[in-house]
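Retro notes
What went well: the complex prediction finally ran end to end.
Inputs used:
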Amino acid sequence: MLLDISEVINDSIGEIECVERVVSPRFFDDTTESGFVLVDMDARADSSTKVQLLFSKSKVYVHPTSSAKDNIPGYLALVRPKNASNTEVLLSWVPESSLAGSRDLDYYVKVDLEPPHAADEIGPSTNASNSRNTSGIREVLVSPPPRSSISSYAFSIPLSNIYSIQVRPPSFGWWWGSLILHTKTEETLPALFFHDSESQSTILQRKQRTKDFEPFANGDELFWGGEQFLQSLKNLAALETSTLEPSIMLVNPEPEDRRAFSPRSAKVQQPKEDPISKALKDVRWSILEKLARVTRLSRQVALDVIDKSPQSVKVLLNKPEVKKIGDDFDSAKVYLAKWALGIAEEAQRSRSKVVWNDGYEDIMGSAVGDFELLSVDYSIERRNEVGLAEWSAFFDHTGRLSLTVSEVKERIFHGGLAPAVRSQAWLFLLGVFPWDSDESQRRSILSEKRNEYYRLKGKWWNDTERQDDDFWKDQKSRIEKDVHRTDRNISIFSDSDTPHPDPESRFAETGTNLHLEQLKDLLITYNEYNVNLGYVQGMSDLLSPLYVVFQDDAIAFWAFCGFMKRMERNFLRDQSGMRQQLLSLDHLVQLMLPKLYVHFEKADSTHFFFFFRMLLVWYKREFEWDDVLRLWEVLWTDYLSSQFHLFVALAILDKNKDEIMEHYTQFDEILKYMNELSMKIDLEDTLVRAEILFTRFKKTVDMVDRKRAEQNNEDAAGQQEGLPKISDELRLLLSKEVIETKEVERPPNAGGG
Amino acid sequence: MQIWDTAGQERFQSLGVAFYRGADCCVLMYDVNNAKSFEALENWRDEFLIQANPRDPDSFPFVVIGNKIDVEDSKRAVSTKRAQAFCASKGNLPYFETSAKEATGVEQAFEVVARNALQQEDAQDFSQEYSDAININLDSDSSSCAC
């Protein structure tokens, strides 16, 4: 992004004194105390050793353990030593603590907030003692960052030493985006996590992007700090995406590097798989998944693993602080966690040599088949719900969204909404309010919609001829019956103390209440509004939570219509929409829970009918009221997939698969077991599990595709019998596009059935 | 003993086929105040026999129940006589009239259902080898409404 150049030049005037300053002695005291190894120690006090700070990003963390309290904040920087070429530019990570109190801190902050030059104008430093080089670009000079440190994780390496960078943007299971640097030496560097929500510059950049670009494009990927860093790095080095692993960027690749990361070379032989390379293999699925797995290993296994480790892992394990922890069995978990994190980079590097050797079964077997979800150490964490203050802060003073839609959806997807926010936020999620509307537009939408509802309702209300129609009477009776048995445990629906307005009604004797009558009128209006579909059983379940949240019949109606757009296919006369979803679930279970699927086959249960109700009304009868509201708003985001409800189904199966396989061998037993799960399912656990399963599913599809492409390369005839088929149904699960299927015209004389 | 109720609107009935297989008795129920629901009984019976595939369809135990007899007589659409004639023509199916609302006749009807089911199980009349492919797809739409 180009900054206004006049601003840069003006700013630079104020910078003149900064290069004259004396290096803070405290900076070095701190660093020596904490064990920094400075290579150019002898020259440290000399201002000519100063380096040019090209890029700085705040709140880049190292996560030494799986515990958040151990996280260390710091700055990621690119610095150019005097007269250094681009390949000699240093990539550094400096902990905040080592900058504390030093004047350098101001410069790191300043460069972070206001990059000193247009990114594409980074040139070799010509005169380090001047505040501007010949092209008028401001220079910011700082002390050389520490080159490496055992205890503080600080490091600094020339770009020429970086082999590749693994890029993991936020989302898809990674709350924080991160970068992993793979060096050409045996040096192991910690993964860098970008805590974007804490980094002032990233927040500003995001705002800027929201202004500059189409902010409401749904496909807009989340902007994050790592991306900004890579943009800067691109001006210094050639970054090339690996054809084998799209998340890997090769830095200034040599021809042989390209080969190493292309599918062809992936067939390197590895004689026998030892525990470590098995563990390494698993790393690719997610570090934390593996962390959890590793912590379950006994100490003996761990030692065994260490003995057979590749050289680079041994080097890491022999570091004194790792050894110290390793000697203490009680800390084995921490130790192994550190160990796992430490070898993550190694694993990624080794992958090109070892992963694809033993064929699909091995890979799929370890990665997909026997996978165990653990109740601890989830790599995905649910967040707190979006409260009223946070929700309001999403909007500017005109009431227009100042975040991207995908950012808002991400937030809701992971945290849900506080009850007070729902009556606003749900209207966006259900399409009543466009995401790019402002406050006044929304006001007029509401008033139009309100009038429109009363017009629609008045139309049948005053039409005595219509009310005489057999189909209409049939439907009305069905609606009334269903309304009177929907959510009567919810306080506003519980009373029957109002005399029924219609003495002919079956509920004339029992009585009714205002809200039940409203629900009835709403559903009758929908029956008239969507005339081909009409009212179908189950809709009352879908309407009731909306009515309770909005407590306004007209608003609830349009929210319901929005909801029904995606739910219409559940209610089609020919049931094709439900069949399609049950089929997708079938394929999903085949791929992701193959053992359970075999069990279901033996039990004649692969029609998955026990999920019918759950899918039909989105688990309305499976979860407690509050959980239903939470689940629905999460599903409405379509954040990972518009079919996320099928991953919820998969999560429920995953959670219960052992129990089912052990005890239930008949369809009716399984059906009964599944039915009895109702009101006993933990929602948060289910959502986390569903997200993990989605992530794993996506990776599995990617891997199968890659593997297939690779086989096609190897052999045109294609020996693909070992690879699972990724059906169209499965591919569709990766789409965020909502599937809307309209009912066909109602045949003449067709009843309401 | 398990009693399955394939409840809901007609479009959901196609689900029922999964439950038909292995059944020992089938209750066909209609609303005595709704002629259409009575007329649909034959379809339900045929549908069941196709899906459940019992070895001897002609002797498979069905029980017919006319429900909602608590509703005032003026609304009655199917006479007892007409219902009995139907049951006789289908191989003397037991026939009961009930009011679920007032719990009239329900116990008697289900006692017969249970007896017939037990007999059926003893006889092990079901085809064990499933020589014909059994369609468990949801394609089987029936055309009239019993609800």
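What we learned: Residues 683-714 of chain A form the longest helix (32 residues).
What to try next: split runs per interface for comparison.
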